[in-house]
Structure formats: C-alpha cells, structure tokens
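A.,

Following up on our hallway conversation. Structure tokens first:
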C-alpha cells in the first residue's frame, strides 16, 4: 500500500489526492455499509468478501515492504499488541471450546495489521486529514439512511394518528444500516468528535456549515437510537474533547479559560451557584439514565444489564484466571438463563464483563495494559506541528474516550463499523507526530500471524460455504443433510454443523426414513457432546430417541432440556407425555403443571381431559392471571362495553406503546359497529414497535377478521396466512420466529435453517379460541381455489384441538375425513 503513490508518478498532486479520496471512500463504504454490522458478522458472502479484501490489501502492503526490503515503522504499541495477542492465545488454548475461540485472535491479528497499515500509509504521505474526511463522508450516508427511515416512520405516524385522540405517541428506535441501535449509537459517537473538531478549525465557511448540519443530523439520529450507554459515551467524548481543546489544542481557548476561571474565583458566590447547578444537572442526567424505561424494545435501565452481567460473573467465578474462552459468552449465558425462550447474545453488553467471563484475569490485565498503552501513546503524540493536526489528535482521543465509556455497558469490538474506524484513526493520528520514530520492525512480525489467521479463516469459510448451500436447499432435506455432513466433516470441532445436520436428518425421519433417524441421532449426540449447554439439541435428540423406541434415553434427554431451559414450555409438555407413557404419573403431573403455568391459554384444550393424569394436573395447576386483553374480551363478550373501554383507556394512559391496548380498542369499536374506528385502532396496534410477538400476531389476526367482515377477502387472506405461518412454522423462540436464529448468529456467526425444533416435538401453544378464530382461513382458501390447502388447515387445527367440531364439519363438506 505504501507503494501506491509511486505507482502514479505522473499524476499531479490534486489528481493523486482525488484518487486516494475515491479509493478511501469505496473502502469505508464497504467496511461500514456492508461489512460493519450484524449482516457483516454472520453472512457468508460478506465474510468471504471481507477476507479477500483484507488478503488483497494486506498482501499488497506487506508484500511490497518485503520486496523493497523495507521495515514497518514502530508506533509505540508493539508491546501492547504482543501482550494482548499472548493473552488471547493462552486463553484460547485453555478454552472450554477451542474451535469457537479461534476466530477472536484471528480477528485481533487483522485489526493490528490494519492499524499498522494506516500508520505506515500516513507516514508515507497519505494525509490523515483525508482518512478522516472520507470517513465522515461515508458516515453522512449512514446518517442519511437512518434519517430517511426515521422521516418515513414519522410521516406514517402522522398519517396514522391524524384526528385520533387515543393513539400511540411517536416513539421509534432506529436499527438502521447496522441492525443494532446501540451499534449505530457507538458508530456516531466515534465520528462526532472529528466532525466537531474539523468544524472548529476549517477556514471555509461552506465546509463549516456542512459540518454543523452533519452534527445536527447525527445528534438527531443519535437521539432515536435510544441508547443510554451511547448518551453516556457521547457526553464523555464531548467532555474530553473540550478539555483537550483548552489544555492542548488552542492557546486562545486556554487563555480565555484561564481568564474566565480567574474572574469566577473572584466571585465565590457565583462560582458556588454554578457548581451547584452543574452538580444538579449531572445528578439529573444520572437519574434519567438509570430510571429511563426506554422503548418497547428495551428494559428498564436498572435491569437492562443485570442478566448479562450475572451470566458473565458466574462464568468468571467458575474460571477466574483464564475464563471460559474467547467467544464463549453465549454458552455462559445459556447456562445462566433459560434459552429458549430467551434468545442468546454475542457478548455481556460490557467489554469488561465479556473479557472477565471469556478470558478471566489474564484477559482483563491485557485489556487494561492495552488501554493504558494507547492513552500513553496518545499523550506523547499531543505535540503536533499544526492547529488542525492537534485538533485531529484531540478528536481521536475523545472518540476513544467515548468508546471506552460506552463499552462499560456494551461491547462492539467484534463489529468492523466500530473497530476499524477506531484503529485507523488512532494509527493516523499517532503517525502525525512532529518527529518520526527512528525504530522499526521486520514485516514478518505481521505477515506470519496474518498468514496463520488467513489459513484458519479459509478453513472456516470452506465449511461455511457448504453449510450455506445446505441452508439454501430449502425443503430438500436429503440434500441439506448431505451438505451439512460435508460441512461437519470439514470443520468437525464446530458444534453448529452437527446441530444442523441432526435437524435435517430429523426432518427426513419425520417422513418415515429409518436410516435418517439413526443418522440424526448420531449427529445430535455429537452436537450435544460439543455444546452440552444448548437445550434445543437435547430436546431434538429426545424426540428422535422417542421415535426410535429408546424411551428411557428420550426421558433423560428431555429432562436435561427442561433443566437447561426451565421456561421453555414445549419441553415440559413433552416431558409430561414421555413420563405419562412410561407410567411415571408424578413426573408427568409435575411437568404438565409446569407447562400450564407457562402456557395458561392452552388450559382449555380437550387434551387435558383425555387421561386421568392430565385432568389431575389441570385441576392442581396454578394458572397465572389472564392477560389484560383476555379480560377485556370477556367484558366485551358480556356486553360490558363501557367497563372494557375504561380498562383500555387506563392502560393507554399508563403506556401508549402497548399493541394489545389498540387491539382491544379495535375489537371494542367492532362490537359497537364502528368499523372505521376499528380499522384505525388495529393499524395503531400494527404500527407500534414491540418485541412481544404474540401481541403482534393477535393484532394481525384481528386485522384479518376486520378485513374479512368487510368483504376485503384478498387483504383478509394475506393477514390470515401470515398469522397461520407465525403460529405453525416457528422455532424455539416462539410464534413468528421462523428465520430468526440468534443462537446460530451469535454463538457461531453463521446463518442457519429457519426453524430449530423438530416436528416430532409435541406442541400445545394455541388456545381453543385462537384455533376457532383461524377457521375462516379455510373459507378464504376455498374461495381462492385452494381446497387442498383448506383441508390441510382443518386437519392441522383438529390435531391441535380434536374437539373443534367446526373443522370436522368443513372437512365433511369437502368429502374428506379428518
């Protein structure tokens, strides 16, 4: 890379600058817009492209150095890099899952090479100002995309709520571009200090205006990330920038600050009042951060991190010296929480807690050493030859300070959109020292670790390519099973491929393939041995054991699943079925009661009256209080419309972002014959951003009922089909989870099959009332010329509720048997 300027000897300086600018914009655009977020973390094609891009650029740079027999200039962070990599390697070797830990040192090597690449390029004549400028240009694209999404959402809210007195307030959390609101916030925090510093030093008025507009837009987007940690990080970044500006960057500002301080010291009463105001503002800010409830996608601030940090602490205390291994926090989380139904996470939402859990005191010591080394290197580099260079230095220091502050409650070190701007800006500003460092080191110190990381990445991606083909095979389970087998054999230490192969063979077994049944059991047993904390593997294995007639093994595996995931209702139901069939009534009753405590809506199914054990379990179960929407529906059914309205309005005044409130108001309006209001209210329910999928499914079904009642059959059919898909094709995370597989994403950084639980597992998630409400879908399918699909629906509903006579009648009318 250092040879790039020499490759264009005839280019004038302006043209060379423009060439570099175009190249950097393209690189930043890829790093941030494509490879920087959740998509870049898990998508095969993006992982492959990132690897090839890194090989090409790193090979060009390091190979050029070797050919010209040039050394890599020292940046003053060599010992920090060695200590960090050494700690990573030690904790990887002692990891509970070495294979899953290996990507972390490989990524660390890539970050170090990129840092030294930026450092060397800046030393060789690439302007640090240009690197910063192009990053801000691409950052403006991120802001523009997020702002466009926000504007569209706001306009839809205005159109939706116009003329309504009972409607949701405008509340929206931006996940734009990166797929994660906190990640978006962290990215903006890194760019805000450079943008502000650049605005303060630029002599051009037009540039200053553009940068100020950039900052205003960035702050607006930042506000709608609703990231409490991001707000703290931004405050720290701006505070550090202001401090360094006065202390180091600007003599003018320093002189004014000294004058102002002298003036205030001469007026102690005013100084006391200002200090009291500042303290009150700080206390209020802390209070707001810790009491802010956030959006419907966030928990209260005082509780939002307790589960993650509790899991990390448990992992740390189990292995305080070297931790459980880099990249293994998802397993620690599964051991601490009930996953499923809780999803797992990539990290502990804190760099400190994640490091403590995964690398113990060794990792924590290395991270502290690196942070101190960066701080020392930055402080030594403060003497810059010009005002603009000192401003860039202060901005980079502020960005790092804000990132470190935010990192106490989040961890975005695995994402390129955050890690690479931090590394590259640091390399650029350290390279702008007034005097060049006389020392250097041989490129092999970077090339050899880089080659090792590249070889491992190639090995990993080879298996992932096979897995990706298997995922894209769709319902061709034989092909998917074969490809997953190849992936598992190509990368045998990664449990993920064995899990997926076992599932594919299990689907074949569900169709009566006995050879696939034994193959599925073998694959899932291997997956269980490699990742024993994943409850879904135990549950799927139990289902296949039961199908194979291995009753005792099935019971033991399902008991293990319920212990690992005590809140997963389906596993308790299947445990009850197995125990009842094996004449263990006490175990069966306990399992059934636990299921009913988690899925009380299923208590009305005729399933519970079929055997004495089930009848007794139902009679002795402690059922939770009915959901508020069910109470409202009971009032509406009883004709107590005013009482229902009062309950709904009270809930709305307490929280305007509850979908069930608007669903209830829509049903109330329908009961009063006000179809226009019913439609408006159900659209309110569908508009609200919420993670309670069951509430969204309920709202969608009500929307279908309203459309059907008004004769809009095409719209009704779409709504009903979406609901049926959500409640019939779903994985361990419940209704509507098909295609959403966070275990694969965050434990293995892989795409997976859309559903993770085998159909051999019995389910009883639909209430009798929900089953009856889905009957009109059969009529809509018939009207659409789909009698076979209508019959499939009726049979499926009868499997859920055999007492659903309406479905039996519909099948008889079609001349079919149940």
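Then the amino acids I'd put at each of the 818 positions:
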């Amino acid at each position: 890379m250092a040879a790039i300027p020499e490759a264009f000897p005839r280019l004038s300086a302006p043209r060379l600058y423009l060439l570099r600018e175009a190249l950097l914009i393209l690189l930043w655009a890829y790093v941030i817009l494509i490879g920087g977020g959740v998509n870049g973390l898990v998508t095969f094609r993006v992982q492959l492209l990132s690897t090839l891009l890194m090989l090409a650029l790193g090979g060009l740079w390091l190979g050029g150095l070797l050919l010209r027999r040039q050394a890599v200039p020292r940046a003053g962070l060599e010992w920090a890099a060695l200590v960090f990599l050494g700690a990573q390697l030690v904790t990887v070797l002692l990891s509970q899952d070495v294979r899953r830990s290996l990507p972390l040192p490989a990524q660390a090597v890539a970050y170090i090479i990129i840092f030294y690449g930026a450092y060397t390029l800046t030393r060789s004549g690439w302007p640090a100002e240009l690197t910063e400028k192009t990053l801000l240009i691409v950052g403006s694209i991120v802001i523009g995309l997020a702002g466009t999404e926000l504007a569209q959402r706001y306009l839809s809210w205005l159109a939706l709520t116009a003329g309504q007195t009972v409607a949701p307030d405008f509340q929206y959390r931006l996940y734009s571009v990166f797929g994660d609101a906190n990640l978006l916030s962290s990215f903006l925090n890194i760019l805000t200090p450079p943008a502000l510093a650049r605005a303060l030093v630029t002599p051009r008025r037009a540039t200053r205006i553009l940068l100020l507009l950039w900052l205003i837009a960035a702050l607006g987007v930042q506000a709608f990330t609703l990231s409490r940690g991001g707000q703290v990080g931004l405050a720290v970044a701006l505070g550090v920038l202001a401090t360094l500006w006065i202390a180091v960057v600007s003599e003018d500002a320093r002189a004014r600050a000294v004058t102002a301080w002298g003036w205030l010291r001469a007026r102690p009463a005013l100084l006391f009042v200002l200090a009291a105001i500042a303290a009150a503002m700080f206390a209020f800010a802390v209070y707001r951060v810790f009491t802010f409830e956030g959006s419907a996608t966030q928990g209260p601030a005082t509780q939002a991190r307790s589960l993650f940090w509790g899991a990390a602490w448990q992992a740390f205390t189990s292995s305080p010296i070297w931790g459980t291994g880099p990249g293994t926090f998802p397993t620690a989380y599964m051991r601490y929480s009930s996953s499923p139904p809780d999803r797992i996470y990539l990290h502990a939402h804190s760099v400190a807690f994640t490091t403590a859990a995964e690398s113990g005191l060794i990792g924590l010591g290395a991270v502290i050493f690196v942070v101190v080394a960066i701080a020392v290197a930055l402080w030594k580099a403060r003497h810059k030859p010009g005002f603009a260079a000192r401003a860039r230095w202060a901005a980079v220091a502020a960005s790092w300070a804000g990132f470190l502050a935010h990192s106490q409650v989040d961890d975005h070190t695995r994402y390129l959109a955050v890690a690479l701007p931090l590394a590259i800006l640091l390399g650029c500003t350290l390279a702008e020292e007034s005097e060049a460092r006389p020392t250097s080191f041989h490129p092999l110190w970077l090339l050899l670790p880089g080659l090792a990381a590249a070889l491992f990445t190639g090995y990993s991606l080879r298996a992932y390519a096979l897995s990706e083909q298997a995922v894209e095979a769709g319902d061709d389970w034989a092909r998917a099973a074969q490809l997953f087998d190849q992936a598992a054999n190509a990368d045998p230490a990664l449990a993920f491929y064995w899990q997926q192969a076992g599932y594919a063979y299990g689907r074949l077994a569900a169709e009566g393939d006995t050879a696939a049944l034994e193959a599925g059991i073998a694959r899932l047993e291997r997956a269980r041995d490699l990742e024993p904390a994943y409850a879904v593997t135990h549950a799927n294995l139990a289902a296949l054991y039961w199908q194979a007639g291995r009753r005792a093994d099935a019971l033991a595996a399902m008991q293990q699943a319920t212990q690992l995931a005590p809140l997963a209702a389906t596993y308790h139901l299947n445990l009850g079925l197995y125990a009842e069939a094996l004449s263990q009534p006490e175990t069966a009753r306990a399992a059934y009661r636990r299921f009913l405590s988690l899925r009380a809506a299923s208590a009305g199914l005729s399933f519970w009256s079929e055997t004495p054990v089930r009848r007794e379990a139902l009679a002795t179960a402690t059922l939770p209080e009915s959901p508020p929407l069910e109470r409202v529906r009971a009032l509406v059914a009883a004709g107590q419309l005013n009482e229902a309205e009062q309950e709904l309005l009270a809930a709305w005044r307490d929280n305007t972002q509850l979908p069930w409130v608007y669903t209830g108001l829509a049903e109330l309006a329908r009961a009063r014959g006000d179809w226009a209001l019913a439609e408006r209210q159900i659209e309110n329910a569908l508009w609200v951003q919420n993670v309670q999928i069951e509430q969204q499914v309920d709202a969608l079904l009500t929307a279908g009922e309203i459309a059907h009642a008004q004769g809009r059959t095409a719209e009704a059919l779409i709504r009903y089909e979406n609901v049926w898909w959500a409640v019939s094709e779903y994985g361990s995370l419940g209704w509507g989870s098909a295609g959403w597989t966070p275990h694969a994403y965050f434990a293995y950084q892989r795409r997976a099959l859309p559903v993770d639980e085998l159909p051999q597992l019995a389910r009883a998630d639909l209430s009798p009332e929900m089953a009856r409400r889905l009957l009109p879908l059969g009529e809509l399918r018939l009207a659409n010329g789909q009698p076979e699909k209508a019959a499939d629906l009726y049979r499926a509903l009868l499997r859920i509720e055999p007492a659903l006579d309406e479905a039996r009648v519909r099948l008889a009318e079609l001349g079919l048997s149940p």
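The CA atoms of residues 308 and 348 lie 5 Å apart. Curious whether your intuition agrees with the design.

B.
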